[in-house]
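Lecture notes, part 5. Sequence design as translation. It can be helpful to think of inverse folding as translation between two languages: the language of shapes and the language of residues. The source text, in structure tokens, appears below.
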């Protein structure tokens, strides 16, 4: 049983008000119900630098773990526009993902929709959030067509115009392209296999949600100490981080705008 399974249980408890907790080390997650969202939530809960992890829910959700704070939200449009006495979080994460039905509790989590990104980001900014990370699905090929079309038209400029101190868009992981093998025999074999389409290269397999979540949480942990601005984590960077046991050095180099390790695709399996 995972850490998240231990954290969630059946119950009827009232989520705490947004002004009831100090904000030091607080992260807020919107989109914790899908495969990637639940992996991000579990990674946040396991990160010792976090004092609290808040998750947006649309119905009452009981918890059994200290530090996990469900935050009930009915409608962004009807929510009060005034800024709370205390920020609801120092860092917010919006995860786009397809839903899953492992158990009924997933239905309680707020499921962000692409067309509501600007409204949700504005709602977060108005409540004191100054660092925002927007995460694309880790396996876009498995998404419903409607969600794919929505993600293709995200109004990222509107989010950037809100004035977050730090804003990061994490793209879907994809391997580096246009790489050629050093040996001509390998290049010939690669070309023949590509034409015959009898093999799917290991690099084309989707990365695991847990590895993308590890990268995202590492970015969240280090973002506050980096220079302000808007950043885009390209698909190759996310893919490269997913190949590493510890993505921390890669994340730090990227945030510092230093040279990154070479992106190397794994060898084909014969």
């Amino acid at each position: 049983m995972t850490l998240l399974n231990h954290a969630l249980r059946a119950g009827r408890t009232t989520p705490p008000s947004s002004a009831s907790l100090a904000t030091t080390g607080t992260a807020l997650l919107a989109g914790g119900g899908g495969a990637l969202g639940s992996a991000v939530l579990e990674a946040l809960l396991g990160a010792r630098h976090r004092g609290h992890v808040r998750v947006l829910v649309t119905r009452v959700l009981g918890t059994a773990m200290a530090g996990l704070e469900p935050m009930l939200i009915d409608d962004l449009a009807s929510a009060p526009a005034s800024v709370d006495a205390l920020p609801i979080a120092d860092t917010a994460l919006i995860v786009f993902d397809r839903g899953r039905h492992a158990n009924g509790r997933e239905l309680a989590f707020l499921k962000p929709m692409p067309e509501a990104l600007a409204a949700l980001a504005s709602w977060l900014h108005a409540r004191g959030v100054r660092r925002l990370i927007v995460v694309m699905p880790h396996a876009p090929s498995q998404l419903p067509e409607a969600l794919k079309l929505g993600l293709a038209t995200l109004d990222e400029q509107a989010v950037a115009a809100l004035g977050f101190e730090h804003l990061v868009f994490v793209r879907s992981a994809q391997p580096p392209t246009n790489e050629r093998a050093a040996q001509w025999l390998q290049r010939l074999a690669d070309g023949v296999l590509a034409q015959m389409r009898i093999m799917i290269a290991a690099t084309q397999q989707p990365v695991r949600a847990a590895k993308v979540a590890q990268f995202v949480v590492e970015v969240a942990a280090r973002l506050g100490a980096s220079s302000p601005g808007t950043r885009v984590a390209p698909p190759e960077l996310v893919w490269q981080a997913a190949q590493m046991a510890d993505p921390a050095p890669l994340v730090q180099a990227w945030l510092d705008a230093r040279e990154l390790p070479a992106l190397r695709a794994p060898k084909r399996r014969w």
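The translated text above is only one of many valid answers, since several sequences can fold into similar shapes. The CA atoms of residues 45 and 53 lie 7 Å apart.
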